[in-house]
Design a protein that fits this description.
- By secondary structure, the chain is of the alpha/beta class.
- It is 41% helix and 11% strand.
- The strands form four sheets. It has a three-stranded mixed β-sheet. A three-stranded antiparallel β-sheet has the order 4-6-7, with helices on one face.
- The N terminus and C terminus are likely disordered.
């Protein structure tokens, strides 16, 4: 199912909001803010809003084609009713907040290795500097000295990865954090496979075609926090959040969950130099 208009979007949201107001008034107000941001997103961008439930229930080809068309147009798609329980998403945000609320010394008990190719563990603000197609060591050092990425992150993946083993804080530091990350990782991997199935259907291929190329879950779960900073520092290019870059892979980090602050921008491939502001749309799943 494709959500083609703001009126349809509001009808879907109103139905869900009425139910939420009965039992969860705080969640209802939060949800309304997300809906309004969704309206803005529909006006500002051409990223398609697609109800994924019809594909999950019966491999609906119309839904699959809508996802493919949005990928072809902008490289992104808004998925609603994606089958990922909202409670699990909210729970992972809670764990993320708990982790980043730890002291610096506690977080550094799981340090990201010096190598930029081992994407595991904790990176404090300023450690990571994202660049686009810059490979010379001298150029990288000069770029890093001029402008820092003010964000912190924690990365993990599947257990048993020989090339990139996980780096966890000791269990006593944050009991339950390791299990929460691993559970979320495997749920996200299932969503990835569902999207790959949809793309195969859209290409008129066997539904499992792409799955045979993704049998090994060499993915990463990346938790990110962007501390508050003076807006003037951004306007004057004293610091950055995360510079423009391209991600590589079949489906990259854009199985993405933002909080109600948002912030992700995508360059419009049909209009280079202009950017689409991707507000988050989360729907209670059916």
């Amino acid at each position: 199912m494709v959500v083609e208009s703001a009126a349809t979007l509001w009808k879907l949201s109103s139905d869900n909001l009425a139910l939420l107001e009965i039992e969860e008034p705080e969640l209802a107000r939060y949800f309304l803010r997300l809906v309004l941001k969704g309206f803005i997103a529909m006006v500002q961008s051409s990223v398609q809003v697609v109800d994924f439930s019809s594909f999950l229930s019966n491999s609906d080809k119309t839904t699959a084609i809508a996802i493919l068309k949005s990928f072809q147009k902008t490289g992104f798609v808004y998925l609603v009713n994606h089958g990922f329980p909202e409670h699990d998403i909210a729970n992972m945000f809670d764990w993320s907040k708990k982790f980043f609320s730890l002291s610096h010394e506690e977080k550094m008990l799981a340090p990201h290795p010096p190598s930029g190719t081992h994407h595991r563990g904790y990176s404090p603000p300023g450690l990571e500097k994202v660049v686009q197609h810059m490979y010379d060591t001298k150029d990288l050092a000069e770029n890093r000295s001029k402008l820092q990425d003010v964000k912190e992150s924690f990365e993990s993946g599947r257990e048993g990865d020989e090339a990139m083993p996980n780096i966890w804080p000791p269990e006593y530091v944050l009991p339950g954090f390791r299990k929460a990350c691993l559970d979320f990782f495997w749920d996200a991997f299932q969503l990835q496979k569902d999207i790959l199935r949809a793309l195969a259907v859209a290409f008129d291929l066997d539904e499992t075609y792409f799955l045979k190329f993704h049998t090994k879950p060499d993915n990463q779960l990346r938790l990110l926090r962007y501390p508050s900073i003076p807006s003037e520092a951004l306007r004057t290019n004293q610091i950055t959040r995360i510079d423009g870059h391209s991600d590589f892979g079949s489906i990259t980090t854009q199985i993405l969950f933002q909080d109600d602050v948002g912030g992700l921008e995508v360059e419009d491939p049909n209009n280079p130099g202009s950017f689409l502001i991707l507000a988050l749309i989360l729907w209670p799943t059916k």
